Amino acid sequence: MTETLDGNGAAHAPAAHTPARAAVVAWSLWDWGSAAFNAVVTTFVFSVYLTGSSFGEEGDVAAQLGWALAIAGFLIAVLAPVTGARSDSSGRRKFWLGVNTFIVVGLTAGMFFVLPTPEYLLLGLVLLAAGNVFFELAGVSYNAMLAQVSTPRTIGKVSGFGWGMGYIGGIVLLLIVYFGFISPEVGLFGVTSENGLAVRVTMLIAAAWFGLFALPLLLRVPEYRAPDAAKRAKVGFFQSYVELGRDVAKLWKTNRQVVYFLFASAIFRDGLAGVFTFGGVLAASAFGFSPGEVIIFAIAANVVAGVATISVGVLDDRLGAKPVIVTALVGLIVSGSLVFLLHDGGQIVFWTAGLALCLFVGPAQSASRTFLARIIPAGREGEVFGMYATTGRAASFLAPTAFALAVTIFGETYWGILGIVLVLVIGLLLLLPVKARQNQMG
């Protein structure tokens, strides 16, 4: 199908098909369920549990966590584009989404067995790192399916709806685990915090949540069928890297703007990830939030991000993705700078400026996905979204490094905010020259 994009990257062509609303909802429910891994496992519960004093010296444990996730990032960077391209050519995109999703479900459930003693640290790190690998591989297939459940005119709204559902799913699940298990001295089913049981049971809840809400997509959305132009002869795993090299070279020759966007988005997406990755750390260390208050802030942050992402998806379709991304990045830079400049104001500053940050994170993430999805020809979604995952992981050290350097040099946690803001500024400057009007890739 041929489509025309205006100067902002918005599509203005009639759709060749109109996906059923039920398919859109089913696709979006995977995002809703994935909040179990994003919010509960990676950001606010298990990673915090794993870096607690029960597992060893906090500085040492945090460093080991960083190395574990760095190894995971390397594996994702190596595997994502090849596995994405192979799912395109084999026509088994949904199959591999299901496989990778339920591997993540199994790994999350396995976190129940991580007792709060140093002897179990390695198990926890391996489960978390492996979960990140398979979650990102599942995300490649999930993002590639965006074109199957949307049209050129609705892709921004559908993407924003899916991303917003992820935030809202995070809200609901965090409320359940906070009031059901983590906050009360004796939670549901008599669960207490003794021996880390409250967190460990939360991992079982998270696993069940993800598995349950992944099912509608797997049952309702049809399997992708590769068009004849995208089909390739089957090649071995290592030969796939040769094919990948050829594809990248072709992409550089036929549509260099896509390569520029992949590079720019890798930088600013790492800054976006840094906002959530270090948000809890900043709240606790620099603004005096208790662990319970961190989760309450996380719930509020997801509310703001979810509503903003769903709402701005409509503007994405009308104005194009690039104006949305640029506006969101400017808003993030201003809000982050205010958190730094007004840090002496206490918790009220973090509640206001911090929530302002969340207002812009989701729209930037969603619009970045739609900008790329609009310019990928049929049959190469998995491959290019694999490159998207790879470039993002290739730059994933930037925000943590900038944060750590700023804190190390100046000796106060709140200085780390400037490190994240710097990454966002660099990403914005790299994005500005990228042309939103694209030629279709051949």
Automatic annotation (TrEMBL):
Recorded topology in the membrane: Multi-pass membrane protein
Transmembrane recorded as keyword: yes
Pfam family, one: ATG22
Any one GO cellular component localisation term in the record: plasma membrane
Domain of life: Bacteria
Assigned keywords, A-Z: Membrane, Transmembrane, Transmembrane helix, Transport
Classification via PROSITE patterns: MFS
Subcellular location: Cell membrane
A GO term, aspect molecular function: transmembrane transporter activity
Name of the protein in its database record: MFS transporter
